[in-house]
């Protein structure tokens, strides 16, 4: 039997903890998407376009690689990637590792749109760090990354 958690008095394997975690993540996702829409709009982007462009800023990626990084379906990324290419914000380039799976890369116009978002993004990061405190902000990131790795490790298994 699992010992109760000191903070909650509940067992660590409590289904309620999973439910509360999921609901908290869903709420955070909505909050982040709302803020992202506000930050991206002046640059002519949507939150989803910003997310896909952001994924390929460090290096070009195939649509499937972007989908894996973002944890969404390949079809969703494909639709957004095609729109970004159509609007001149990104381009497809040959993939030496796979003839048919082209790489998505931002164009200069796409990079400029991201640069337009950067000041608002930095201001929000500063305000959030002030609200949480630097150490707690870093710990939050660490725990969210740990939770994501744990979910990856579980895969699609359900017990």
TrEMBL record:
<dbReference type="InterPro" id="IPR000835">
    <property type="entry name" value="HTH_MarR-typ"/>
</dbReference>
<dbReference type="InterPro" id="IPR036388">
    <property type="entry name" value="WH-like_DNA-bd_sf"/>
</dbReference>
<dbReference type="InterPro" id="IPR036390">
    <property type="entry name" value="WH_DNA-bd_sf"/>
</dbReference>
<feature type="domain" description="HTH marR-type">
    <location>
        <begin position="15"/>
        <end position="149"/>
    </location>
</feature>
<dbReference type="InterPro" id="IPR039422">
    <property type="entry name" value="MarR/SlyA-like"/>
</dbReference>
<protein>
    <submittedName>
        <fullName>MarR family transcriptional regulator</fullName>
    </submittedName>
</protein>
<dbReference type="Pfam" id="PF12802">
    <property type="entry name" value="MarR_2"/>
</dbReference>
